Amino acid sequence: xTLTLPATTHITWQWAxxxxxxxxxxxxxxxxxxxxxxxxxxxxxxxxDGADQASWHLLGWxxxxxxxxxxxxxxxxxxxxxxxxxxxxxxxxxxxxxGTGLGRxxxxxxxxxxxxxxxxxxxxxxAQQRLEQFYASFGFVTxxxxxxxxxxxxxxxxxxxxx
Length: 163
Prior knowledge:
The chain is α+β, with helices and mostly antiparallel strands. The protein has helices at 23-40, 102-117, 132-136; strands at 12-17, 56-64, 67-77, 86-93, 123-128, 141-142, 147-149, 152-159. Strands 1, 2, 3, 4, 5, 6, 7 and 8 form an eight-stranded mixed beta sheet that branches. The longest helix is centred in the N-terminal third of the chain and has 18 residues, at 23-40. The relative contact order is 0.15.
């Protein structure tokens, strides 16, 4: 389903553990991740990586034609899940939602929750290199040389623990 978001759209945010996700929510988040990461970016990779079960999931829902449609998503992985630090990953917004500020709101929500459930922890993420400045605007600092992952240039970034 094509999602069209006006610049002043209302998003309903939902946090859930893996076990709290319903089958329709799980389907929606996997479909959005596949739509963007596999199809749009033409990248064959193992999306289902075993980290979802231990993660918190942030879903941003937009009502369209009286039906909720997933417009944005990310996951918060606890320390030790992907990195020694807590991490944020699978940050994604629907193509038609880009340029509306939704990505900034998504990351703001994600950081707030990660800091709440992992207080005093640094946060790490693997950023597509083209988004390095976006993440830097949230206090993330590049901590690796650029590397090619799934034919896309990435950098590791770390946000120091607040303290």
